[in-house]
Amino acid sequence: GAVVSQHPSWVICKSGTSVKIECRSLDFQATTMFWYRQFPKQSLMLMATSNEGSKATYEQGVEKDKFLINHASLTLSTLTVTSAHPEDSSFYICSAPQGDTEAFFGQGTRLTVV
Amino acid sequence: AQSVTQPDIHITVSEGASLELRCNYSYGATPYLFWYVQSPGQGLQLLLKYFSGDTLVQGIKGFEAEFKRSQSSFNLRKPSVHWSDAAEYFCAGTAGNQFYFGTGTSLTVIP
């Protein structure tokens, strides 16, 4: 099946710094990718929809200036957490749909801000 | 509004016992439905999916799920649980290509 690779799998950063997370579709093209956030013991919450060649669409309550999304190619979307704070510590997961009915998920990135 | 509901937050079963995880959906039309499993600190692994046709779907690791339109349900089952099945399970539905996730059910398996 199709593979979505997410990198890094975990990262620790200092408060105030920025962190970039990459999401790649390895064997198919994805004009759209989704970014989710998951708090401990909770479900996945959709943060934003990444669109190749255009601006991302953010869900209500998600700060677009804090969570910068770039979808520069058909196989790569990046999420940059800017000026990270401890409350941004979470598990971030990307997914790339294939057609209208299938979606493949990255392995997730555990972000810890200290 | 489209939604997926998992009524059980946490379930504990004995190894070897049968398992059923509940999932209810609310969609305007028949959605595409999925079950995913997530081990701690890991991404999501697809167990099975239902698009149309046979309402009983077989998945990986011995799991199956049955789509029941009359009950708006898509419950996940396994006849005999193994200790390695302990994980978080998510039911999801899709309208277009956006997924709606349930809140998850945490499964504990006791020896």
Report on the structure:
The complex is a heterodimer of chains A (114) and B (111). With 114 residues, chain A is an all-beta fold. Chain A is 0% helix and 55% strand. In chain A, strands 2, 4, 5, 6, 9, 10 and 11 form a seven-stranded mixed beta sheet that branches. The radius of gyration of chain A is 13 Å and the shape is globular. The model of chain A has no long low-confidence stretch (mean pLDDT 91). Chain B is an all-beta fold and 111 residues long. Helix content of chain B is 0%, strand content 54%. Chain B has strands at 3-5, 10-14, 19-21, 24-26, 32-38, 45-50, 56-58, 64-68, 73-78, 87-95, 98-101, 105-110. In chain B, strands 2, 5, 6, 10, 11 and 12 form a six-stranded mixed beta sheet that branches. Chain B has a four-stranded antiparallel beta sheet with strand order 3-9-8-7, with no helix packed on it. Chain B has a two-stranded antiparallel sheet with strand order 1-4. Chain B is globular and about 40 Å long. Chain A binds chain B through residues 6, 10, 32, 34, 41-44, 46, 49, 91, 93, 95, 97, 99-103, 105-108, 110, and chain B through 32, 36, 41-44, 49, 51, 90, 94, 96-99, 101-104, 106.
